[in-house]
Amino acid sequence: MPVIRKYQSASNAAIPDEIARDIEVVAALDAHVSALHPSQVFGFGQGVSTENVFNFGSGFLDCRNGGGTFPPNMGHIQGFQARFAYTEGKWGMQLVTQNNTNNECYFRTVNWDVWGPWRRIWNDGNFNPAQYLLQSEGDARYRQSSVALADADIPAAIARDAEVTAAVAAHAAASDPHAQYLLQSEGDARYRQSSVALADADIPAAIARDAEVTAAVAAHAAASDPHAQYLLQSEGDERYVQSLRAIYTSNCPTSANNTTSIPHKLVVARITSFTAFATLYAGTINEIRIQPGGGTPTWIGPNFYYTVDIGWSYINIRSSMNSAGVAGAPVTVVVDYI
Q1: Interval 182-202: pLDDT, tens
Q2: String of b and e for 15-50 (b: at least 16 CB within 10 Å)?
Q3: Stated pTM of the model
Q4: How many CA atoms lie less than 13 Å away from 219 in the CB half-sphere?
Q5: φ, ψ for residue 250 (rounded to 5)?
């Protein structure tokens, strides 16, 4: 080791390299002052969960939009955390607030990677002790629910069981406790019971008795014209022409130049004469409708086959020389007498 003599200046070359020069010391101090201590790491948590930000170590934190568990009604928290520097697990705590949530602050702890719940920190901004009672004050002020009521605890205005029982018994024993209602005896005297049949004397004189109704109906039925607004049959026959329809069913003649007669009887009022003719043609349906005065069905085919005429006693169906093709065919004659 070199010897430095007292009172003798040493040159730079005489100072060993292991000894820092002034300029090196000043630079080291400046760097130390401006550098962050490892325990002063800032944990900016934009996009990082509230749990994963703990990986940054001890320091300040600012978390939002990164998931994780936030305190109630908070979504962007600022605060600090302290982590025990042990790499095999997480121990420590977080204390946070939110800039726009006044007077609210929460903390939680983590022990071997298991997080506890966020706990609210009460302060004079969110808790006023004057608004609450101590348990001793509450016990003195109120009756505890586990303590049974004593008779002295009940106001005198509230009826006791014995009083209620006596009042109900007195009410039940009263002869007429509800004057607005009728007693059964009053109802029986005021009204006729439904089980008691009506007597003739109970029915007002204005209501007809059975005998009166029977006599009135008989007199109505016996009257010659009880409803003058209607026509009698004789008046209708006199006023209007009668209409009657008769339907006769038979067969056409079974051979040419022959006649089938259907008997009928014209006994109809107001008919003084009657003649009707009809002709059947090939291909027609076997039904002829005739009205008094005569009528001819529409032609179907060129050949004449049958003639129908109606007299007072018979409806005659006469065949011609050309009728053999439909001889004996069924025919229905419908006659409207008017």
Answers
A1: 988 888 888 888 888 888 888
A2: eeeeeeeeeeeeeeeeeeeeeeeeeebebebeebeb
A3: 0.33
A4: 6
A5: -155, -160
